[in-house]
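re: that chain from earlier
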Amino acid sequence: MLFRRIVVAVVAALSLSACTSSGSAPQSAPPSSTTSSSTTAASPSAPSSARSSSTSQVSPTAPAPDSARGVFDAMSQTQRVGQLLMVDCPSTGVAAATVTAIRNNAVGSVILDGTTSAGVRSIRQLTSQLESDNPSAAKLFISTDQEGGQVQRLQGAGFSTVPSGVEQGQIAPAALQSDAKTWGSQLKAAGVNVDLAPVLDTVPAGGGPNPPIGDLDREYGHTPAAVTSHGVAVARGLAAGGVDATVKHFPGLGRVTGNTDTTGGVTDDVTTRDDPYLAPFRAAVRAGVPFVMMSTAIYSKIDPGTPAAFSHAIVTGLLRGDLGFHGVVISDDLGAAKQVSGYAVGQRAIAFVQAGGDVVLTVDATQAAAMTQALLAKANADPAFKKLVDAAALRVLQAKQARGLLD
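^ sequence. v structure.
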């Protein structure tokens, strides 16, 4: 996901500030836009993800919803907002800003950012320290980018050298699923419970430069069919290894000519609402993937002028409506990405939640307070927005329960 460090030097979800307690349970979110046929996309009672008939699911088997609902009901509004934030922590050691976000702003998720060769044992110490700083009954989602190739954040003793997406695309899907189970089990041993992988962007052969995906060999192949078979295999393997997979970057970055981390105005002028390149994402949703990450590129043939992460037509209409996804929607980086730099920090969080998103990811933990304050102020002033916040918080807690992260 976050390839700013790869391009310039080279995800488990959340953050907040204190507010008043709310005792009301969340209501179903307002119906999706007129571009969507679904009216249940943001319902807090929806299952954690769409299910397929396959015996090999991508998501953990969720127990009865009582635990998540009970934790939710006991939370203040500030604590609920905290479940909507994922902030960075250097993979080389716990940062003060991360601890502040967790302790003071009730942030519920962290991304281990930056590459380290410290190995499993050291990362386990880091993740244990993060959890010891977490006062919530809901344990942290701790994530990282462990795709392979140039995008493998955690390396060293106990971690396999994961091949690039292009190389993984040459492995038979069954064998790749087995490999991914191993990679997932290594992350679990290190205390990481969400992998911000696999990449389901399809880069067409001969399509020219593609800075975010193709130029870094992150794609599994050059056709939606190849990306589907291998991407779903990786997602299933990670789940079998004990971590949640996150498919990205919806609705696809394989046909853009700019990197949203380092460039503004990145626009896909090809993808349509019924595009064949959506097939890998649709297959992952049917397989039960628990997380989908939103791109911040603009898709001019779907919602001109609006980054996908801020687009109700794309998040609620297309992903939740057309594809039927009911799991956790997470953003690509909204902290340092050039693509969204024109939006005020707090407004980025508001726009994402208004679009139908759940977890705001920022690689700048110092932004947690501003995002929390903006979300709280909007929720306190706008009952409809508060319903979206509450529904998102409950979805996150249900995903945590499914992964065994609720006390």
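The two ends are 30 Å apart (CA to CA).
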